[in-house]
Amino acid sequence: MNENFLAACGKILTQDQILLDASMREHTTFKIGGPADCLLLPKSLEETQRLLTLVQEYELPLTIIGNGSNMLVRDKGIRGVVIKFARNMSAIRVDGSRMVVGAGALLKDVSDAAADHSLAGLEYACGIPGSIGGAVFMNAGAYGGEMKNVVKSVKAVTRSGEVKTYAKDELELGYRHSIFQSNGEAIVEVELELTSGEESAIRAAIADFTARRESKQPLEMPSAGSTFKRPEGYFAGTLIDQTGLKGLQVGGAQVSTKHAGFVVNAGGATAEDVLNLIKEVQKRVKEAHGVELQPEVRMIGEI
Fold first, then answer.
1. Which of 72, 89, 180, 257 is least crowded, fewest Cβ atoms below 10 Å from its Cβ?
2. Which of 47, 123, 191, 296 is catalytic?
3. At CA 92, angle to CA 215 and CA 212, rounded to 5?
4. Which domains does the chain have, with CATH numbers?
């Protein structure tokens, strides 16, 4: 890593916000992945602006992540700089039916804060293990809800350090898609518009979604969440189950025995194990049903 770049980072961040050769196993829910050359943890919009400007000045590769819940980091890790939005940027402000949330806030915390203020619309998000920034990036959804239903605007920082605010209709929110997948900008703050409700009813819905998740999903094992996108007219997990692939294992990677739509780290899995298992599942489902499954999980880093 460029020493001059690190020295410049040291003028922006404290020592505990700069991690060198950071094991990405510790920063992803899959608990898989090689080291990142340099992992930075900004705690403000201003720090983010300065870091992005610096990364561009030194022409370094840049990867932006949230809670690491919908990604697989390859075994050789990530070259260049990783900027992670985590607890340092997780403030939640509530003003009437409006919430303004830092990109690093966990969805479950945002859902809970909404319930505290008798605000409905985020009940479905209570069990999604991602950050609000990552949820907007992927237009995360579950149980009939998705981020595009509640997002009002998003504040982002461009690679050159410019702050931009996007209205909802500028975000290109679609199935597991947003404009940020193509423009490379860093989401720093999300404005949500919710509706007033009864706290007891909101809490009951959260409890129901939580019980359903706990009974059906392999939450006790590391994973990146749902592995495949939903093919039109089908459910990926159902197709995989019907193909008889529950429990199929490559190295430490396994098709969950609890929910076939999840590939889990059954112990010591490498990214290569996961990728090989995904290919095998795709091949067998295509042979059995003629359907091509596409991964929902974001693959990053070097093989």
1. 257
2. 296
3. 10
4. 3-86 (3.30.43.10), 90-216 (3.30.465.10), 236-300 (3.90.78.10)
